[in-house]
Amino acid sequence: MEGVLCMEKELSQKDLEKIEIEIIKSFNRNYIIRHAPVYTLSEVLSLKKISDLKKICKLFSIKGYAKMEKQELIEKAKTQIVDSPELFKDVLYILNDNEWNTFKNAIDKKYVIDNKLLYSFFIRIQSMGFLEVFYAENNQYIVVPEEVKSLYKEIIDEDFESEKALSNNLNKYAIAVTSIYGLITKDDFIELFNDQNNHKIEIEDLDRILSRFIMTDSEYLLWENFIVHSILKDFECKFMEFNHKRNSNKPRFHPEKEEILEFSKPNFYENKKEMKEIKNFIFKTLKLESSIINSIIDEMYYLTTMGGTILEIINVFDRYFINLSMDELSEATDLIINMMNNTRLWVNNGYTNMELEDLNKRPKFTLLKGNLKEETHSEPLCICGSGKKYIECCGKENEEN
After folding, report:
1. Which among 94, 127, 155 is the end of a domain?
2. How far is CA 236 from CA 124, 290, 302, in A?
3. How confident is the model at residue 10 (pLDDT cuts 50, 70, 90)?
4. Contact 56, 76 (CB under 8 A)
5. pTM of the predicted structure, to 2 decimals
6. Is the domain of 140 the same as that of 33?
7. How many separate domains does the chain show?
8. Has residue 6 been placed in a domain?
9. Which of 92, 114, 262, 379 has its CA 20 to 30 A from that of 102?
């Protein structure tokens, strides 16, 4: 009997693995070449779409690529990849742990079969021509072209590993601190980093290393003497100056290294208790698809961090054409206020409202109860709890300042 039960469990686990692999394959199908693996750069590039070849040529700043035919694109891309060891090294520096492990596992092999490899682990380096994933015989083959393997041997030296470790660490800090503060001066960033790490950096190190990540895409950008969250890139520079000056008179939250690194993780805020409660409310009450729920949560979170009002955050539901009943609106409002009080706010220099209450003995965010449905279509009450309209209270002070 025990043998039968063990067999059932084993079969069940195999079934689950098959389902997992099929799901991964469905995610990957738009990002891999359905072809038997090939091993030279010319062969790999010849299997790519013209649009993908043009993206590689654009990355390598090849002039006139827009008017080139496919064969010329292949030759130009191949030549530029082989002749760009420094750019290749910069690309390797910015790979995250999953991307780096994918590349490193394949660098000394003809190919690697990995049917559980998700496209996010290879799409960036693949888009640059340094690695390719093929689908053949019901398997995923990961291949590093022969010319790229030779290039790798050329650039690797004793300093590479330490430089890569420093690059990854600096990038994580930049993601984290802009998530906590919105923006930070380079000098303040360097002081924070050097205080928490053995490897000390100068302004030249900061610009050189972070520019590598911004070259491809990043969650932050460099603007004059600031490191700025990418969500602010569409705002006028004057807004960023004002935001920095407004925060300069407030105490700055100084997280420990462990907490900083938590903020560098993708969608770190989704694991917060307050965000989970809102997510569960939306899922159970409104029965929406997970992709829509995640979009709503993203908008609410970033509106909150930037100091959005309760009205602005509740109105996210309106933008998704969601009509809440009075009871649902009341419950959602309580959950959102809880999120606003326990989220690190850029306007608070990284402190939550609850923490500022303890520091300054000020009341946390509250909402005077009334006709909530009417309140969402009129001027909101002031967050200080005075009972006055915001524009007649703290809002008036802000305008005068």
Report:
1. 155
2. 30, 33, 18
3. low
4. no
5. 0.75
6. yes
7. 3
8. no
9. 262
